[in-house]
Structures are given as structure tokens and as C-alpha cells.
Amino acid sequence: MSTQxxxxxxxxxxxxxxxxxDHWPLPEISVTAPLKHQPTAEExxxxxxxxxxxxxxxxxxxxxFPMTAVFLxxxxxxxxxxxxxxxxxxxxxIGNLNLGMILGLLQFVTTFLITWLYIRHANKNLDPIATKxxxxxxxxx
Amino acid sequence: xxxxETALGSPLLNIIIFGVFVVGTMAVVITVTRxxxxxxxxxxxxxxxxxxxxxxxxxxxxxxxxxxFLGIVGAIAFYGYDGLLYSIGFLVAWLVALLLVAEPLRxxxxxxxxxxxxxxxxxxxxxxxxxxxTLVISFFYxxxxxxxxxxxxxxxxGLKGDLAQNTIIVLVGILMIIYVMIGGMKGTTWVQMIKAVxxxxxxxxxxxxxxxxxxxxxxELFGKAVEVNNDPAKGLVAQAGDMLxxxxxxxxxxxxxxxxxxxxxxxxxAGLPHVLMRFYTVPTAHEARRSVTWxxxxxxxxxxxxxxxxxxxxxxxxxxxQAIEALPGKANAAAPxxxxxxxxGDLGGSIFLAVISGVAFATILAVVAGLTITAxxxxxxxxxxAVLKDGKADPAKEVKVARYTVLVIGALAIVGGIAAKxxxxxxxxxxxxxxxxxxxxxxxxxxxxxxxxxxxxSLASIYTGLASSLILIVFSPAVSGAKTSMMPDVDFAWFPYxxxxxxxxxxxxxxxxxxxxxxxxxxxxxxxxxxxxxxTGAGADGAIAH
Lengths: 141, 546
Description:
Chain A is mainly α. Helices cover 62% and strands 4% of the residues of chain A. Chain A has one domain. In chain A, strands 1-2 form a two-stranded antiparallel sheet. The longest helix of chain A has 41 residues. Chain A is elongated and about 65 Å long. By secondary structure, chain B is mostly helical. Chain B has one domain: Sodium/glucose cotransporter (Up-down Bundle). Chain B contains 22 helices and no strands. The N terminus of chain B is likely disordered. Chain A: Keywords: Membrane, Transmembrane, Transmembrane helix. Chain A: This is DUF485 domain-containing protein.
């Protein structure tokens, strides 16, 4: 995805754009693309009730929310087992590596795995709709 | 043992190599800043945007602070399994940022958290609250970095005693203020990227070295760490080695404290102001996603190294845990001391120690600079301009205010750093995480995902989270009443857990719900607009460069 077509000028908050050129330590503001159409409140309201947007919302939430629940439950299960099942977690599995250590290392594995799943989901199922809606809104006159 | 108690390596050599690093990073900062000023036009045409990968590196640079390197390695060297929790919590926390926060935030905001909250709530009160919590969180985070810097430099110079260490912290603080004054955000971002590479490489080399010493057998490394520290002359307590592998060596008498810490770690990241700010340095939500993915990969790899380094420090440093405890900076000295002993001490050890310490110090400098800039920008942008001057402040004056804020924050950090200098840095940073999770996270999540959420709910949540976490920290064993407290000689602690998250996070969520339902629903059309913006990125700002 190109970075250019996502760039528009700031219009709803201009409070920083009149800062002097050397204005650190405030972050710099810069505009990298020509002005684009800024969707109006009515246009936002229209998209908000459109079936496409409902579908986008559904696809996002039906992945992100259950997945958040999954990794939180898994993480706190690990923490609670460490606290309340100390002997169980201290069971040696591979040499000096005990069950707790193995489960701890598995937390790393699942974190990487969930990241990969989310990227795949977002690229395949979210980006096409989001890009379409955005370009439609920014093209309207 | 004698040698360890005075200095590691040769102070002169340490300082020379160390100085090269400090001057080198300073040179990078000055070069980048100057070139930015020369070609101001370039900034407006495309030089502005950091790519997702660059930004991911910078996020990793921001996140892998002294707490991650010095603090976690020390915690694992002393408490084994319980120290590993820091690594796991700090990493898993990124999933909250990736799945729920990074992209919608990029799509709706400008560059502070207050921008997102004020989008569909009453501007002034919400900005004020968000800016205050940003300042408090940044202060706690800074305090940890200062404590780490003081310990690190004392270790290199072979200084012991309170006066010497306090002097060092003051000098380091002044150096940092100068660095921020010269560098600014753009220079800092470049230093973050370079330093992230150096730090991860350094940790990788040390880890491979440690593993090679034990024939690439993790189990043997663990076994050696246990064996060494079971020696009463080496372990921190009797049979300290046996306590490294099973859970609860540190929290055995206070298991709920462990749960509280685990909550702070996993919910804190997505509420840290200087992390949130990094989601705005990329041009699109897609790049924000990419940068978080890069960050997760780099940070995850690094935390795997900390496990090896922590056990390596406990196993390899002659004199075990007691020798580390005797060094300036205590547990925080485990990683540099490991660097000294890996090549067997002497000249090779001195060089490796100085290089690793140089990387660690560059880490601290860059993180402090980023934090200070976040805090001063928040004060100047959100409090001075938006709240005090109705958004009509004279731009030149706003910049001046931001610069004075840097001085004030620097001075506060020096005082705080002195008070906290013998604490484990990972522990101190976990306090900042607890405040971030309590004060910021509920408001961020609710403003993105709860239609009914309103100004009163947000204010209730931020102030409840801020106040409860601060009060509980003050009256916790972290501040008084225990041998390891900041004030060990007095005891006014009534809160039994050294991290407040277990109480303050639920309180803050509860306050958000109560506040929301007792207040009126407001700006429904703004809520709709924000929802569309956050999901599609329509109408979002283009590149914003730091």
C-alpha cells in the first residue's frame, strides 16, 4: 500500500501548524501530500450507517475482541498457575527447565503467532473495505 | 571479590570508551537536527514520514529502556522465574496495543492521547486530565532511567557511597538536559533506531557467548546458576540457587503482589504516552500496524535474550548474587558485570564492559530525551496552549514554555533519581506502567469502543486512576517500611503490595462506568464520525514527523 494516497492535510486541528520553523521540543508537523477532500460531518454520518461499514466493524471486532480475550486468559492463567500451583509449575520437564519456564516461553510463541494471525486477517479482510471506503469518501465533492 | 567491590575493569579505559559513545550519539543528534533545519522544505515534501520498519525500530528503542536491559537481567539474576514475568508481561502487553489501540489511534489523533479523547468530549477538561497523567507517568519512567544512569556511571568509575552516586546522578541529569536541548525529537528518533540495533546486537552477542559457555544447553546454564548460588558465600539468601527455577522466589510471601505486578505489565504499555506518540510518527494506520509488528519481533527477541543473560549473570559472575549486590547499582549492575566477566575480566572484559555500558547509557539518554520531549510537548500543547490560552497561544511563546518545561522535568528527575537509586529499575518502571494502565488505558479503550462514553466518565477514570495508583504507591512497601524501600527507616505503609495495579486498574474502569452513566450522552454525531475515522482512516492527517 502506498503511503501517498493516505495523506491529507490537517483541517480539523490547526493549533500547531503556525508554529515557527524551529519549534522543538514540540513535534514537527508536516504535510506530504496535496490537499484532499475532507469528508463533511454528513458524509461521515452516511458512511457510519452504511452496510459496508457495518461489515468492516463486524470483521474487526469479531477478530480483535475474542483474540484479546484469548491472550489475556492465557496470560493470566500462566500468572495464576505460577502463584497457586507452584509445585506443579516447578515440575522438571527438560533437564532443569520446569513446566513454568516452558509455559513462559510458550507465551512468547503465542504472542508472535497472534501477531501473525492479526496481520493476515487485517491485510486480507479489513484493508480492502477500509481502503475502498476511505478513497470513496476522500474523492467525493 | 575485592576487585568487584571497588570497580569493574579500569575506570580510565571505561570512561574513554564510554565517552566515545556519548560523543558519538551526540554527533548523530546534532547532524540530524542541523540537516533538518537546513532543508526545512524537505520536511514538507516527503522527508517527513518514517517507514513502518524505521518506526518499529524506534519503538523498540523507546521500549527497551534501561529497565529492560539492566533491570530485567538483574531481576532474573536474583529471582529467576519471578524476574521472567517482567519479560513476558512487557511483551504480551504489545498485543493490546496491536489489536486494540495502535491503528484506530493513528487514524483519529494528531500526536497526543488528549487529541483522541478530546475528539468527542469536552476539549479543555479532558486535555487537562490527559496532560496531567502524561506528566506523572513520564516522571516515574524518568526516575527509573535516572536511577539506572547513576548506578551505571558509578559502576564504571568505581565509585561507592551515597555522595559520589548522588553527584553522578546530578551530572548525568545535566548532561541529559543539554542533550535534549540540542537534540530534539528528530535527533532522538534517529538515536533510538541506531541504539535499538546496537542494544539488540549487544544482547544477542552476550547471549550466544553465555550459551556457548554451556555448550548451547539452556538446562546446563540453569543448573550452573543454581549450583553457584546455593553456596552460602554467593547466594543472596540461604539456598538462593534452588529458588531460581520454581515460581515465587521473590513473591512467595506475597503472591497477590505478583498478580498485581502482572496486571500493571500487561495493561500498561498501551497507555504509555511516549509509546502512544510513536503511533503518530508514521503516515498511515497500515504503517502503524507494520511498526508494531516490527516492534513485537524485536522486543520479543530481546526479552528472550534477557532470560539467558539473567541466568548467565547468576552463573558466570564470580561471587554470584552477593557480588552483584555489592556493586554500585546493585541488581541493575548484573548485565554490565556479566559483560566484564564473559571474556574473563582483565583487558578484554574492560573493553566489553565499556562498550555494553556505552550502549546502555545511549539507551538511557535516548529514552530520557524521548520522555522529556513527550512530557514537555504535552504541557505546552495541551495545558499551556489549549487550556490556558484557548488554543490561541503565541507560537513562539508555546515553544518557550516547552523548553522551560524540559528544565523543570530534568530537575525533578534528578531529585527523584537520587531517592530511587538503589531500587531495581524494572520494578520502578513497573510503577509507571501501573499508573499508565490505571489513568490512561480505560479512557483510551472506552473512547474508541464504547458509544455511551462521555467527558464525565473519562475525567472520573483518569483522575481516579491517577490518584489511586499514586496514593497506593506512596503507602506501599516500595516507599517505606521494608529494607528495600526508598525510605527504609520510616514505616507508613499500609498497602501490602508493592505495585498498585490490582486495585487501581479496576477502580479506574469502575469510575469510568459510573461517571459515564451519571453524565449525559454527548456529541453523538462526533462519536459516529470518530468511529468511521478510526476504522477507515478517512480524513486522517498525513505524515507527521518528529
